[in-house]
Amino acid sequence: MSNDDVHAKLAGINERLNYLNDEVTSIKSILRNHEKRVSRLEGKVDVVLKTNQQIYILIRYVILPLIIILGALVGAKLALP
Predict the structure, then answer these.
(1) pTM tops 0.85, yes or no
(2) Could you write out the three-class secondary structure of the chain?
(3) Residue 17 and residue 10: Cα distance in Å, rounded?
(4) Over the stretch 27-59, which tens digit does the pLDDT of each residue have?
């Protein structure tokens, strides 16, 4: 193997390394973007979960008792002449 062959192979390896380095940089950028998007989605999920919990509490402690009271009043009105 001559020096020219070795230099040619090294040049080819360097080209591939540069290409792979560019690809890794691109993939890192894509991953950062996806991390940001996932973080935003996690925040939105937290908001939805809190909202659902608030609605559950509202239904359980406000709306359901009001429906029960209304039902009792309607029942009493029907039972009494």
Answers:
(1) no
(2) CCHHHHHHHHHHHHHHHHHHHHHHHHHHHHHHHHHHHHHHHHHHHHHHHHHHHHHHHHHHHHHHHHHHHHHHHHHHHHHCC
(3) 10
(4) 999 999 999 999 999 999 999 999 999 999 999
State the amino acid at position 30 in one-letter form: I
76's tokens:
């009493």
Alpha carbons 47 and 49: distance in angstroms, whole number: 5
The candidate with the shortest Cα–Cα distance to 23, out of 33, 11, 35, 31, is 31
Kindly report, residue by residue over 16-33, the tens digit of the pLDDT. 999 999 999 999 999 999
